[in-house]
Write a structure and sequence with these properties.
Chain lengths: 324, 637
């Protein structure tokens, strides 16, 4: 109960999602991963101060009314995997305490500074995300649990990259950049200062209340998109283009064609379209391909530049229409 | 040291930091530790004035471990959860406002640096360790010191967490008169107690801060747009702009104004040392809004008179600010606000040379087959299945949690209690340590000797590879380098490993004119003594590579005295050979002399190698171009 209160009071210090300025790709990636959980997750890489963590927390608090299940960089194995409730254990009672991986089942599992996480913890996460099974064999426990989670990681590439195996677990990747347009910079300043004031004054001006109300509408919209996903038809030309894009960009791994098609379906559901179009594929292609381009795993700054965008356009134009 | 509370610029900046939680992470450049402590004391009083919680001061440092920061294994029924010592927790966060001082960021332990990255400026902190699961919105104030010339050693990711930057040199410029009186005072002190400096803030000042904390100001978008003038889009860091905005808003609150205006932003920018761009951004200003842009074109011009109507409290403050009209015995301040510069170059990391390792915030790789020897700095504890380097307390605590269950089981099985602690393999904990340096790669590079043979880099490459493979610590002794502070002396560059950028910079340095080889070898000798003979070192091998033609032309005594008597005598060579023979006596040192095969005195490298007890390896001679041959003929007598 105490912990629940703690988390609820912290929740009131999170900026409402609708107040996040710009960062449209980042928002899109989070929403797609929510609409189609089989996407697997989102890796968010960007320079310092680009609202990466703020956006993830805001999104989770909007969609789940809770903070995301979070693995901090100081987490120990017993909390990640699970173990015993220590308070009860010393009294002689054995009550299990579920770990973060199990707590994140069918939810969002967030790792801030994912590139700074201890290697040992990364190995555990890799095991679980690749098999969908959490095997607990420690402190006398021997259990297996099904765990399906949407992994969301944020990182600053200045502090190192990720191992290729972990990188592959993220279905989508966003390269976050600063909002350099003066209008957006100004809007960011206004939002931050209003948010500061709301936290200091207990939201006298109703800034947070207004924002939370707006998030409810958006949440309903995204929930509806999720419900529509299974009804979205994958157009044959989108399926063909997904395969062609993967081949043409010589991507690493075998999941990109499937993920391209799945992300396009999620996008169609998000924009309330019954059938996928090539423009939907275009909207999500960089999110799927960015970290799968040849050599991307050797650099921390996986880039999707003008050259890649141009190639994408050319490839999509050349895809024959199914005529349907 | 002068009394800091009479420094109005400093007090303005500290007051802003106390008033605005978004500014409560302060990096003070070039501050002496006592100065930093005084700042912490002042900040603590300011925070106390505006907070309902007690302010507690803590220190972060070289020996801070994970357990200090986040707590170790705990036994709730015996100790009670509250008594468990951990610096950061939801409970402490709710009970106190923490003020953390870091004397020197460059010597901060790795786990403390990671904690700084997690905690400073965070909206939420999660703790998931040793059975504890908690999260909270942190309310802390951070004050860290760092020498500006050492800023290149730090992770920019960590530095970015510190919003407010203060320069000690600019805020407290050295005053010889003060220093002289301080020395005189110290000499007359019978005890070793430091000079007492009053940091106690006047109640009237604290009252003003308290009032400012209650005030909020209107923030017209048109006024805020003025900020975009100061930070160019091509070098745009969102947190810097946000800091400037927060500072300007807090200045407005401190002034007692009802709305933010351009003069507040100008003041804030001036204090930060920002200059204004000439071009203004094309922004739409809605009709009816307060005009945002005053006519001044440069930051050097005086601020516009503040057109904003004053609140009654601001008028009161203005009265208090007149020392002639208000007599307050404790009052020290003549004004609440002073907009002198607090830091002319607030972000020195933008231009600092890279001196750090890559990925400074990553934990060292785990050793799955730990060495039996307990070396390396302890940075935490890990589970273990071996009996080497056990963390005894953590092991006992881990076992203690299961005692009730195990003792009940033992009692049932044996009909009597077990007389001691029942420890099982799963309880074992070992120390997690940073990787110790077991090998050292030392290079003495005589830059004057390789001018004729450019193949030295190729010849050195296998030794660099070997140093990388064993993750050896690196020492480079630069002899005869150009732009040396003292051309008659050699210099030492040390690095944690071969990947540190300053190693590459040292190898690329230009050549000088003098060759203080004897001094270079003397420094090599000192380094060997340090790594092989000092304290509980664990270095078991030093690879020492010398690249020199042996033609030292500076006697050792001259190097030590630093006198510029440029007499080229044989003494320089004799001294070098003498120092080399001392190095020969060391065990665990493998020495190689890479011979540049000079045209003159070709026997000297051989003699140097013999004196060092080294293996002599020739550097392949580069064929001379026709032009070089002609030039050489002209030089030859």
């Amino acid at each position: 109960m105490k912990h629940k209160d703690e988390r609820q009071s912290v929740l009131r210090t999170i900026l409402p999602y609708t107040y996040i300025v710009g960062q449209e790709k980042l928002k899109l990636a989070l929403e797609l991963a929510y609409i189609a959980p089989r996407i697997g997750g989102v890796l968010i890489s960007g320079r310092r101060g680009t609202a990466k963590s703020t956006t993830v927390r805001a999104f989770a608090s909007m969609m789940y009314d809770a903070l995301p299940v979070t693995i901090p960089i100081n987490a120990t194995e017993d909390r990640v995997v699970g173990g015993w409730e220590v308070t009860e254990l010393v009294k002689g009672a054995t009550r299990k305490k579920i770990g973060l991986l199990e707590a994140a089942h069918q939810k969002l599992l967030y790792i801030d500074e994912v590139n700074l996480l201890d290697d040992h913890i990364i190995n555990i996460i890799l095991d679980v995300t690749s098999t969908g099974k959490l095997v607990i064999q420690r402190e006398g426990l021997d259990e297996t649990r099904d765990v399906e989670t949407t992994l969301v990681g944020t990182m600053n590439p200045e502090e190192g990259g990720l191992r290729p195996q972990l990188l592959d677990r993220f279905g989508l990747m966003v390269g976050v950049e600063e909002e350099a347009e003066p209008e957006n910079r100004l809007l960011i300043l206004e939002t931050v200062l209003k948010f500061d004031r709301a936290l200091q004054t207990g939201d006298e001006a109703g800034f947070l209340a207004q924002g939370y109300a707006a998030t409810q509408d958006l949440r309903t919209e995204i929930e509806a998109a999720k419900a529509r996903l299974l009804d979205v038809q994958l157009a044959p030309e989108v399926a063909t283009a997904s395969v062609q894009l993967s081949q043409s960009f010589k991507v690493e791994g075998h999941r990109s064609d499937y993920l391209l098609a799945l992300a396009a379906c999620a996008y169609a559901a998000r924009v309330n379209q019954p059938k996928t179009k090539l423009e939907h594929l275009r909207a999500v292609a960089d999110l799927v391909l960015r970290h799968r381009l040849p050599g991307a795993q050797q650099v921390n700054y996986a880039q999707w530049g003008a050259e890649e965008a141009q190639r994408l356009t050319e490839l999509l134009v050349s895809v024959p229409s199914s005529g349907s | 040291m002068p009394e800091l509370i009479s420094n109005t610029t400093l007090m303005t900046s500290l007051s802003c930091a106390a008033l605005n939680p978004g500014l409560r992470s302060i990096l003070v450049l070039d501050a002496p530790y006592p100065g930093l402590q005084h700042l912490a004391d002042i900040l603590a009083q300011l925070l106390q004035a505006i907070s309902d919680l007690p302010v507690k001061q803590h220190q972060f440092g070289t020996l801070t471990t994970d357990d200090d920061v986040w707590g170790s294994l705990y036994l709730p029924s015996y100790y009670g959860e509250r008594a468990i010592h951990r610096l950061f927790s939801a409970e402490r966060n709710a009970q106190e406002l923490q003020m953390i001082t870091i004397a020197d960021l460059t010597t901060l332990s790795l786990v403390a640096a990671r904690a700084v990255t997690t905690l400073v400026g965070a909206e939420v902190v999660h703790l998931e360790r040793n059975g504890i699961s908690s999260c909270w919105h942190p309310q802390q104030c951070w004050l860290a010191g760092c020498a500006s010339e050492a800023i290149g050693r730090l992770s920019p990711h960590m530095l970015d967490r510190f919003a407010l930057r203060l320069s000690w040199q600019e805020l407290v410029p050295p005053d010889p008169a003060d220093d002289a009186s301080a020395i005189a005072h110290l000499l007359t002190q019978v005890s070793t107690e430091a000079i007492e400096i009053s940091n106690t803030l006047a109640p009237s000042y604290l009252e003003q801060i308290k009032q400012a904390a209650q005030r909020q100001v209107e923030i017209p978008g048109s006024a805020l747009a003025h900020i975009l003038d100061y930070l160019p889009a091509q070098n745009y860091y969102p947190r810097r702009e946000i800091t400037l905005a927060r500072f300007a808003v807090t200045l407005a609150r401190l002034s007692g104004d009802v709305a933010l205006n351009a003069s507040h932003i100008d003041k804030a920018a001036r204090m930060f040392g920002f200059t204004r761009k000439q071009e203004l951004p094309q922004l739409d200003v809605k009709p009816g809004e307060v005009p945002a842009f005053p006519d001044e074109n440069t930051e050097a011009e005086p601020a516009q008179p503040d057109p904003t109507p004053k609140t009654p409290s601001s008028e009161l403050l203005a009265e208090v600010a007149q020392p002639t009209t208000v007599q307050l015995p404790e009052a020290i301040h003549t004004s609440v606000i002073d907009s002198g510069t607090i830091c002319r170059q607030p972000y020195p990391e933008d231009d600092a040379p890279l001196e750090r390792e890559e990925y400074t915030l990553k934990l060292p790789p785990t050793r799955y087959a730990p060495s039996r020897s307990a070396h390396g700095i302890i940075i935490g504890t890990d589970e273990s299945d071996r009996l080497y380097d056990l963390a005894i307390v953590s092991t006992i605590l881990a076992a203690a949690r299961f005692q009730k269950v195990r003792q009940d089981w033992y009692q049932r099985k044996h009909q009597h209690p077990y007389p001691g602690l029942l420890i099982e393999r799963m309880d074992l904990r070992r120390y997690r340590r940073s990787l110790p340096t077991e090998q050292v790669f030392m290079l003495l590079l005589d830059y004057t000797s390789v001018r004729e043979n450019r193949n030295w880099e190729q010849a050195l490459l296998p030794y660099l590879h070997a140093a990388y493979t064993v993750r050896a610590a690196v020492t480079i002794i630069k002899v005869g380098v150009g732009e040396a502070p003292s051309p008659l002396r050699a210099e030492v560059v040390r690095a944690k490993n071969i990947l540190v950028p300053r190693v590459g910079l040292a190898l690329e340095a230009g050549r000088g004119r003098a060759t203080p080889l004897a001094h270079g070898l003397s420094l090599a000798l000192e380094q060997l003594q340090r790594v092989l003979q000092h304290g509980r070192n664990i270095t078991h091998k030093v690879s020492f590579v010398v690249i020199s033609d042996g033609r030292g032309n500076v006697p050792l005594e001259l190097s030590l005295r630093g006198e510029r008597e440029m007499l080229v005598t044989r003494e320089g060579i004799d001294d070098a050979l003498h120092e080399a023979r001392k190095i020969r006596a060391f065990k665990h040192v493998e020495t190689v002399v890479l011979n540049p095969q000079p045209d003159y005195y070709p026997d000297l490298p051989e003699r140097l190698s013999e004196a060092l007890g080294a293996t002599l390896v020739p550097i392949p001679v580069q064929e001379k171009t026709p032009m070089e041959q002609v030039l050489e003929l002209e030089v030859m007598p």
